[in-house]
Amino acid sequence: MEQISTNQAPAAIGPYAQAVKIGQFVYTSGQIPLTADGTFVEGSIEDQITQVLANLDAVLTAAGCGRSDVVKATIFMTNLADFDKVNQAYGTFFGDHRPARSTVQVAGLPRGAQVEIELVAYQA
């Protein structure tokens, strides 16, 4: 197992890695709307999802893969009423690529985030 780390995304806020690589699989930890320097992105769900996706892009790059390698996404949201807004940003992020996905409403997320996403990628 190889731990993946980049300073282009926020450092882990607990005892875990930004991602781990096992064989050809990359598993990202959930990303919330923190900037690389650890600043929490306040504001709308659109502002938060934009930062989350930027963080995931940086972690994928550090692992040597990209969006087109993602096979599964899990989205955690505190309010499913924002589903369409998140779905729009997610669709723009992945373009024509369509990984499997689950979306779950949760009671709360770290730092009061409205959204958190984790990914699984496969490098052929």
From TrEMBL:
Entries under CDD domains matching the protein: YjgF_YER057c_UK114_family
Top-level taxon: Bacteria
UniProt-listed InterPro entries: RidA, RidA_CS, RutC-like_sf, YjgF/YER057c/UK114
Residues making up the signal peptide according to the UniProt record: none
Family annotation (SUPFAM superfamilies): YjgF-like
Gene Ontology molecular-function annotations: deaminase activity
GO cellular component terms attached to this protein's record: cytosol
Family label: Belongs to the RutC family.
Protein name (database record): Deaminase
Organism whose genome encodes this protein: Alicyclobacillus ferrooxydans
